[in-house]
Amino acid sequence: MTTPTRIVIVGGGIAGLQLATRLGERLGRSGRAQVTIVDRSPTHIWKPMLHTIAAGTRDVQQQQVIFLAHARDHGYAYQPGELTGLDRARRRVQLGEIRSQGGELVLEARELEYDVLILALGSQANDFGVPGVREHCYFIDSQKQAETFNEALRMRVFRSIARDELFRVAIVGAGATGVELAAELSRLLEVAQAYGDATVRERLQLTLLESGPRILAAFPPRISASAQRRLEQIGFHVLTSTRVTSADANGFHYGDGSFAEADLMVWAAGVKAPDFMQALDGLDTNRANQIVVGPTLQATGDEHVFAIGDCASLLPDGHERPLPPTAQVATQQAEHLAKHLPAWLDGQPIPPFAFHDFGALVSISDYDAFGTLGQFGFFRGGFIQGRFAQFSHLMLYRRHQQALHGFSKATLLWIAERINGCVQPRIRLS
Questions:
Q1: What are phi and psi of 205, to 5 degrees?
Q2: What's the sign of the alpha-carbon dihedral 228, 232, 233, 236?
Q3: 355: helix, strand or coil
Q4: Most CB contacts within 10 A, which of 98, 175, 315, 419?
């Protein structure tokens, strides 16, 4: 009897979970492979949705995927844990111990053996070593962080209502995450007016800070200008070419020597892979801690280790820069491995990964949306705005749901979400 190939996927984000789903269905159910996904969280949230969880404008219970239940239905296994080390010679990943919130030991440190290792660890905000940021700013890199920020946000809003005082929120970083969070916070306070204080929105002071000359630097200037105008219309104070030099408990210090007070501070400037990836048993990494991979998505120097998504750095032939850490890149890389890894296990080569840029979208909550159509399709390089852009942005998430659950279940989830929206508050109140 043939021993199943042990495929270990570390990281249950967009790329990791979609790959585990496809490989589990294709290889796990048949017994050809033993597919295991490792993640420190028991649930998955689509990362581009985290800003809505942070703002409290979406119900986290309806949007999360429980790994254990999903694994049962799709032919893979789930192991809770956080990667702490790697032994490539023995082909083992090392997982740290797990403790409860009260400090009780739940699982001791342990090792998992693998034949094929796929690193899909995602990314986190890059504080660039700015003093005080780690101690005083909130980050929105995970479901846990988003919920922690939401709790602090709700407490501050309640205090503002009770004391009739100004409430100041400052967000550093005007990429897609910062801009979408900014818009969602404005929307939250508009809806909150119906729950006890019609003037709460007027007491909210919102500031978006960007060190570069324009917001949404990854988008064309036309979109940057349109998005900034829209943010300013809904009450945000947008500051570009503003460098934060340090943070303390009361606000941000700027490069020109000035100081801006803030009650809640969010850091969304830049991304990097987790710091521990610099010491993963000699794997080649770049300055952003990403694993350097070749065209087949295999780590340089070890064909048994793959890296995909935000934690991987791939420089395509003829390009000056590596592919950006976006959900679109992560999804396509997961699809590429899901398609070609089974044949590779039988000795066939993996064809080079080719990224197809289908454009980018940014949502300004319910107010507006903007996007480009990329270099593939009928309208190459086109610009979209308004309802069509909002619909296109929503379809990105629906497509992700369909990839995880199939068309029928994804449709039922959408219907359940619509029904729940008719009977539940539009924002998180507790």
A1: -110, 115
A2: positive
A3: coil
A4: 175
Cβ(328)–Cβ(218) below 8 Å? no
CATH topology of domain 127-269: FAD/NAD(P)-binding domain (3.50.50)
Rounded to two decimals, the pTM is 0.92
**What is the tens place of the pLDDT at every residue in 113-167?**
999 999 999 999 999 999 999 999 999 999 999 999 999 998 888 888 888 888 8
| CA dihedral of residues 133, 138, 143, 144 (deg, nearest 10) | 90
- Distance in angstroms (rounded) separating the CA atoms of residues 235 and 206: 7
Under CATH, what is the fold of the domain 5-123+273-345? FAD/NAD(P)-binding domain (3.50.50)
CB 47, CB 14: distance < 8 Å: yes
Q: By C-alpha distance, which of 219, 120, 129 is closest to 178?
A: 219
One-letter-per-residue 3-state SS of 196-242 = CCCCHHHHEEEEEECCCCCCCCCCCHHHHHHHHHHHHHCCEEEECCC
Helix axes 387-405, 327-345, angle to 10 degrees: 30
Q: Contact, 390 vs 372, CB < 8 A?
A: no
In this structure, what token pair is assigned to residue 273? Answer: 């892979």
Question: Which residue(s) pair with 207 in the sheet?
Answer: 170, 237
* Sequence-separated (6 or more) residues with CB below 8 Å from residue 376: 356, 357, 358
Q: What are phi and psi of 240, to 5 degrees?
A: -100, 170
Cα–Cα distance between 119 and 13 in angstroms, integer? 11
Which H or E element spans position 287?
Answer: none
Encoded amino acid at 171, one letter: I
User: Rounded to an integer, what is the distance from CA 105 to the centroid of its chain?
Assistant: 29
In the chain, what are the domain boundaries? Answer: 5-123+273-345, 127-269, 360-423
pLDDT in tens, 285-328: 999 999 999 999 999 989 999 999 999 999 998 888 999 999 99
DSSP string, 73-116: HHT-EEEE--EEEEETTTTEEEE--EE-TTS-EEE--EEEE-SE
Token reading at 246: 């340090």
What is the per-residue DSSP string for 395-429? HHHHHHHHHHH-HHHHHHHHHHHHHHHHHS-SS--
